[in-house]
Amino acid sequence: MTPFSTAGEPPDITTLPDDTLLRIDGVVALLRISKPTLYASTLPQSVKLGPKSQGWRVGDIRKLLQGGQ
User: Fold this and answer.
1) What would the pLDDT profile of 25-43 be if each residue is shown by its tens digit?
2) Burial zone of 7 (CB within 10 Å; 0-12 exposed, 13-18 middle, 19+ buried)
3) H helices of the chain, where?
4) Is the link from the previous residue into 3 a cis peptide, with omega within 30 of 0?
5) Helix 58-65 to helix 24-31 angle, to the nearest 10 degrees?
């Protein structure tokens, strides 16, 4: 898995592999939701990267944006 981080702007996920991990700033920018909303939601499932760090798979985010679950 390749970690990927952004600085506030949504990343272009069309060119990233499905197993790339996005940090929270990239996910909330793509989904246009707040961090608390993301943490309270059940989709997409995050991957624990460390004690205080998690990421979300690009493939899961892509499916969510295309209307799938």
Assistant:
1) 999 988 889 999 988 887 7
2) exposed
3) 24-31, 35-40, 58-65
4) no
5) 10
Candidate from 15-19, 40-44, 54-58 with smallest mean pLDDT: 40-44
CA angle 40–29–50, rounded 5-degree value: 60
What token pair was written down for 54?
């998690």
- Tokens 């939601």, located at residue: 41
Residue 11 confidence class, pLDDT cut points 50, 70, 90? confident
Q: What's the start-to-end Cα distance of the chain, in Å?
A: 21
Between CA 27 and CA 2 the distance in angstroms is: 15
In whole angstroms, what is the distance from residue 28 CA to residue 11 CA?
11
